[in-house]
Write a structure and sequence with these properties.
single chain, about 100 residues, mainly alpha, Arc Repressor Mutant, subunit A, 6 helices, about 70% helix, about 0% strand
Length: about 100
């Protein structure tokens, strides 16, 4: 049972209604956010960029990404964690 859960990865599904107020608040334009995200993603080192794109954007699993990138599962997890942390830092420093 636990192995099946681990293979599936850590994905959390939340109803979008819980975040409707936050989403409706506006803030930056979606096109600007997408451009910023793309720019920041391209600034990551290649391994981190590939891991973040495959898992966080394309929805691939750790195992699928590891096989495609010829990396170990652990290396993919580390690259994903470091890439997401770097993106979070970049977005935090841009806030007014």
């Amino acid at each position: 049972m636990i192995d099946a859960l681990r293979r599936r990865g850590r994905r959390i599904s939340l109803p979008i209604d819980d975040f409707s107020e936050i989403l409706a608040d506006g803030g930056a334009e979606p096109d600007m956010l997408a451009a910023d995200a793309g720019r920041h993603l391209e600034s990551l080192p290649p391994g981190q960029r590939s891991a973040v794109r495959a898992i966080a954007i394309d929805g691939a699993s750790i195992g699928e990404t590891a096989a495609r990138l010829s990396m170990t599962n652990g290396a993919v997890r580390v690259a994903l964690h470091r890439g997401l942390a770097a993106l979070a830092r970049k977005f935090r420093t841009e806030e007014p």
